[in-house]
Amino acid sequence: MKIAVTYDNGEIFQHFGKTEFFKVYQVEDNQVVSSEVIGSNGTGHGALAGLLAGQNVDVLICGGIGGGAQAALAEAGVELCAGAQGDADRAVEAYLKGELISTGANCDHHHEEGHSCGDHGEGHSCGGGCGDSCGGGCGSQAALTGRNVGKICRTHYRGTFNDGTQFDSSYDRGEPLEFVCGAGQMIRGFDAAVADMEVGQVMDVHLMPEEAYGMPDPAAVFTVEIAQLPGSEKLETGQQAYLSNQYGQPFPVKVTAKDDTTITFDANHEMAGKELNFRIELVEVKERN
């Protein structure tokens, strides 16, 4: 099974017809076993639907999408889960767990009934502004420079916290990570480290939160009445879920507290505020087609 996500800055890109990248996940036994980022290689709904069909994609997770694109995907035999928002990897995990909310058509048996955030929807996005995975800076940061910027890079990496605890490793998955350097597909500090590396080089980098997933936004922590949020009575402290904003778009949250009448959610990225360490090995660099 293959799942594709409209992709930008590690997040779900919100305009299907204008997406430049898809992240494609290979799934076996309901678990992601590999993933790669591919270029859209064309514009227009028909071209994008054909691209996904050519990649043997079974399911598309995206943000906004029009009726024409929905029809093109249906004709191509691609199941659609529209209206998704936030971290792409998390959305796929939620889909596989049957927790992903969809406001689009063709999204049936995989998904539970959605939760609504009611009046709290507008003010509680996923960390403020431009998406957590860009490190909070986005447009205000200078463009990256280096020999690898604009090229497809394949890297192995191991990520650890300051206490040495590992949080991620491509070595454990047995497959390098592939991305376009400088295109915003990676957190800023990782992108900057790879920008001028040589193939075969191994580099250790220490990233402050501003270079990684930014600082936590206090406004992204909010409490609501359980009675006003259907389905929230089943959630437990520490559980991850998706809520819907006032436009019906899902965003990921974590339950941080709950009592008999209220429940508190945190919509910040789980890595927000953390210093991260990476050992990066540049495996391959190739030109984009």
Automatic annotation (TrEMBL):
Q: Where in the cell is it found?
A: Cytoplasm
The highest taxon in the source lineage is: Bacteria
Please name the SUPFAM superfamilies in this protein's record.
FKBP-like, Nitrogenase accessory factor-like
- GO MF term list: peptidyl-prolyl cis-trans isomerase activity
Q: Which UniProt keywords apply?
A: Chaperone, Cytoplasm, Isomerase, Rotamase
Pfam families, per the entry: FKBP_C, Nitro_FeMo-Co
Q: Which reaction does it catalyse?
A: [protein]-peptidylproline (omega=180) = [protein]-peptidylproline (omega=0)
Q: Which PROSITE patterns match?
A: FKBP_PPIASE
Q: What GO biological process terms are annotated to this protein in UniProt?
A: protein refolding
Keyword Chaperone set for record: yes
Q: What class of enzyme is it?
A: isomerase
Which residue range or ranges hold the PPIase FKBP-type domain? 150-235
Task: Please state the protein's primary subcellular location.
Answer: cytoplasm
Cellular component GO terms, alphabetical: cytoplasm
The UniProt entry, under InterPro entries, shows:
Di-Nase_FeMo-co_biosynth, DiNase_FeMo-co_biosyn_sf, PPIase_dom_sf, PPIase_FKBP_dom
Under which EC number(s) is this enzyme classified?
A: 5.2.1.8
Keyword Isomerase on entry = yes
Task: Please explain the role this protein plays, according to its UniProt record.
Answer: Also involved in hydrogenase metallocenter assembly, probably by participating in the nickel insertion step. This function in hydrogenase biosynthesis requires chaperone activity and the presence of the metal-binding domain, but not PPIase activity.
Q: Which family does it belong to?
A: Belongs to the FKBP-type PPIase family.
Q: What is this protein called?
A: Peptidyl-prolyl cis-trans isomerase
Q: Which organism is it from?
A: Candidatus Scatomonas pullistercoris
